[in-house]
Here is the input.
Amino acid sequence: MEQEVSVARAQQLLEPALNILRTVFGYEDFRGAQAEIILELIQGRSALVLMPTGGGKSLCYQIPSLLRPGVGIVISPLIALMQDQVDALRAAGVRAGFINSSLSNDDYQSVMRSLRRGELDLLYLAPERLNQAGTLELLAGLQIALFAIDEAHCVSQWGHDFRADYLLLSILHQRFPTIPRIALTATADAATREEIINRLELQDARHFVTGFDRPNIQYRITQKRNPRQQLLEFLRREHSGDAGIIYCLSRKKTEETAFWLEQQGFTALPYHAGLSSADRLRHQQRFLREDGVIVVATIAFGMGIDKPDVRFIVHLDLPKSIESYYQETGRAGRDGEPATAWMVYGLQDVIKLRQMMDESQGNEQFKRLERIRLDAMLGLCEITSCRRQSLRQYFGEEAPDRCDNCDACLNPAPTWDGTVAAQKALSCVYRTGQRFGVAYLIEVLSGLESERVLQNGHHNLSTFGIGRELDKSQWQSVFRQLVARGFLGVDHNSFGGLYLTARARPVLRGEETMRLREDVQEVTAKGTRQRNTDSGMLPEDRRLFEALRLCRKHLAEQFDVPPYVIFHDATLLDMVHLRPLNAQQLLSVNGVGQGKLAKYGDAFLRIINEHELDLV
Ligand code: ADP
Ligand code: ZN
Here is the structure.
């Protein structure tokens, strides 16, 4: 009975929220935990929200900000995106503004005026502002609906996106203990999660941890052979004309890769911390506003990139942890349409990262944690079972054995009994004194009487020439797997010299068998899902879709916003589907609310009506 009463009460409380969802944002129903989270906030309680990218976190604080008296304050480190976020809200008719260092004095004064008059529903605020004298007084003088702390993992010193400014956020719960706070993030392993809770004092808040799966992203990890050629094939076959991000480890490589892609006919721009801030901003803007731009970047790019139609993420170098990998790949396909996370990796990546980690500064505990994280990442690369299952389990989720949308499911790599090969490799490392790199070890195993082998007298070793049954690339594969799985360590004082770890002993003694993966040439993954914008569209639908896109492009230029601020692809596709001919019908299209109807409705209706006339 009590249960029923509370359900009825919850529905009653949610009624106005649902109304806003439909009329302002143009969506029919809440997704996942959105309703519960909103319910929590409108009742004045705080919440911690862990939701994957594209899960719909923004609405969780936007709607309560509209419902509660006062202005919702959104703390976000993504200064470059505030303008677009605010534009998108205004397009939907929400009274929003932002304060960060990019604001001109006039604009700043105008935001302040609106704030004081209570004319804003949402204010985006850069975290460093909390350090400035005026800001706290300003906040103290306002009626505040809630505080939303976006990208909350930035508060974690263990994490990879730590921002010192985020430590200032403790001011919020100390100074404003009665205002509800909502902390949101898409990445958080258990340790980071704990740190968020402690630093932001969210022990008593309800925690909403929703599934981390991104079913529309296809995960693929393949062996590095000729990375540029492999990349070119991947882009031409699967993503020509699409927007995407290519991650590399070094600044130099981002520049060289972007330059090379330009020569191959792509629009590709480099992005790294060494560029001037003007160049960085310009490249980011082009990525956001033009269609089909590729950004080749170091990890400096992309935090919170809100572009919904990023169709692919490429890793040309191995990320340092699964957290980084998942966050970076998570920037693909926010709109729910098919997207690809594609990575090439090889022996050199493993050796380089292992060395970097050993040399890195920091105390032993930090290094140990880094090593554990790298091991998990390497494990993901080498598994032959479903990648998605492994990713989800890493984040503490249950997952079925197969996802049918990763390379391991679509194009399984065969395994072979590599016990004897592993023994030969390990004992060759041992006999040569645990100080040589892979290339040399392979010479010895293959019985190559090279100058250096002869010089070292290693042609007399018992392991000389015992590995002729495998070719060079097969041996490289064996060594890669042995290093990746921690049977061999990499000496950072020599040039990639390998040594045996404690784990090697049982293998050498024949107490442990070992299955290795056979490196298969990547075929275009079978069953690669076609984007529904490309395939299965009738010619007249395609014509209409293109006309709607053109209309969107013109409006975007006119209002000086990215095209997706007007409407997402998914909304245009829905228009093609439903063919609305009047305002009422247009409202039933997903993503069309009252605000956008008033602003853009006529333009799109005109196109659809003209198109229908053409058909008769
Ligand atoms: P996140 O911040 O979690 O990455 P967003 O808040 O940007 O995700 O939302 C991702 C996409 O999903 C956006 O295009 C948003 O408009 C859409 N979306 C969010 N909630 C809903 C909903 N209830 N129904 C339909 N679309 C939604
Ligand atoms: Zn799978």
About this structure: Residues 2-23 form the longest helix (22 residues).
